[in-house]
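Hi L.,

You mentioned the student needs an example of a multi-chain input paired with its predicted structure. This one should do, with 624 residues in total across all chains.
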Amino acid sequence: MLKKIEAALAAVQYPQSPEGLYEPIAYTLSSGGKRLRPTLLLLAYGLYRDDVDRALPAALAIETYHNHTLLHDDLMDHADVRRGRPTVHRKWDANTAILSGDEMLILAFRHLLKQDVEGDAARLQQLLSLYADTMQEICEGQQYDMNFEHADNVSVEQYIEMIRLKTSVLLACALKAGALIAGAPEEDADLLYRFGERVGLAFQLQDDYLDCYGDPAVFGKAIGGDIRCGKKTFMLISALQRANDEQRSALLSRDPAQVIPLYNALGIPQLCREKIEEMYAQAREAFDRIALPAERKQALWDYAESLLKRNK
Amino acid sequence: MLKKIEAALAAVQYPQSPEGLYEPIAYTLSSGGKRLRPTLLLLAYGLYRDDVDRALPAALAIETYHNHTLLHDDLMDHADVRRGRPTVHRKWDANTAILSGDEMLILAFRHLLKQDVEGDAARLQQLLSLYADTMQEICEGQQYDMNFEHADNVSVEQYIEMIRLKTSVLLACALKAGALIAGAPEEDADLLYRFGERVGLAFQLQDDYLDCYGDPAVFGKAIGGDIRCGKKTFMLISALQRANDEQRSALLSRDPAQVIPLYNALGIPQLCREKIEEMYAQAREAFDRIALPAERKQALWDYAESLLKRNK
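Structure written out for the whole complex:
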């Protein structure tokens, strides 16, 4: 699946000129990664049909869009490095990141418009609306994320809604899009959406967890990065709710050596694991209701589980 | 027409939250202006059908998209004021301008997806592709415009191609979209595109001309603004081509008191007016070939001419 996606991405022909617009786009899209979203899209399509190549335009669309968000988010967050390479606004400049990022959003729609929908106007409209609605939610998620940086009273519910918007809906969109393109029943498409949403939440919560408790060699990041940034994660928000005044100021110290022992004392790792299990169970419940034989669904489940068992 | 558009824009309901995302969008879209692009779209639609309200979603899409480009261009150009009010990145900040701008591009597609195309998948695809192709060209135009700032060998041809991409194709898109939605013959839609493209070029060249020779009271801007910014306009590029070394350094002085007399000495105003007339004639030629009775077409011609006769 990954090979198909990489080959399709590599085969995209960008105009030669203006170089300053297209070079950063090719740079961004060639930086590898798990290609999680297009893989989910093709796997969902593959539940219903064997000619998965047919869904590649929509898969390219979602990967191009996702990289647009990374490009603009990195600019907004002043991030210097992405996947071991300088970010576009560092390698070029802020204006390049803005304009090439805009162009990637447009290219995403252009890919999507090449998607074969068997001449079905309603399906095309549904597919495009799914992408556009999801993109709007992701903008909202990014705005909430930026708001939360300066807010000191974020609740766990608000945090989960933020990560749902910022991260989960795109996984959900990928799965639903694959189903729509395959002409799957509406109920299945909605169950796949729900499944992706819950997997995404579990995935993001696990990311929060692994930031403190992961094996750096496996996780690929230094431990405590979120803590040092003062990022309001599930861990920090839950701990602040349970903390007394003294603990509260230690939690806000941004020092992993102070924060992690407090997390332990307050039972936060257990709480986070329970929340992950809750999302995981909701994902499984939706998955089991998809009206297909278990063996047909196995590959998708295995893939989702491989994401969630990264470090267990 | 303008009333219809303002009413439709005012009736758009943005989500209440997050405010930081939607408030700058409402601010930007409520700032008035000529609403040139949606007006052209509705006028083109009105050539074929009387129920012009039907094309309002596509009209809102093009105006929302146009304002997205203004928002991001103002950020890239560090412009402080737009239509007498602080720009979004000044009133809020750069991140707000980036994210609210992205959201406006998405909203443009969302408006477009509400456009009734009478269940015709091919027409929907054609309409969406027209918008997406145009948006891509506009990104290219903006990139060339930024490149030209630092280039000292821009030709008149390159300049005209840049303004075609940055400005004209959106007027052309507006007219063609109106025709497509009305189900007009393909040939008419293409002639309207050509007409809009030529009107756009004439319009932009006139803008260059009026920057030096307009009546500030009518034109609404101080004379010589482009000169003071060192902007490579048709005037400056043509003058540099004809200048000797001494004149060349005076032309690059950014001082209107030095530059405008040189333009006069080098015959640049006449040259620019000839170019405007050439574009105007090409616009008229395309217009005359549209297969409709003259009286049906008159309103569109009058509107285009009113744009081009702003200060003659």
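You could point out the following to them. The longest strand of chain B covers residues 81-82. Chain B is about 75% helix and 0% strand.

Best wishes,
N.
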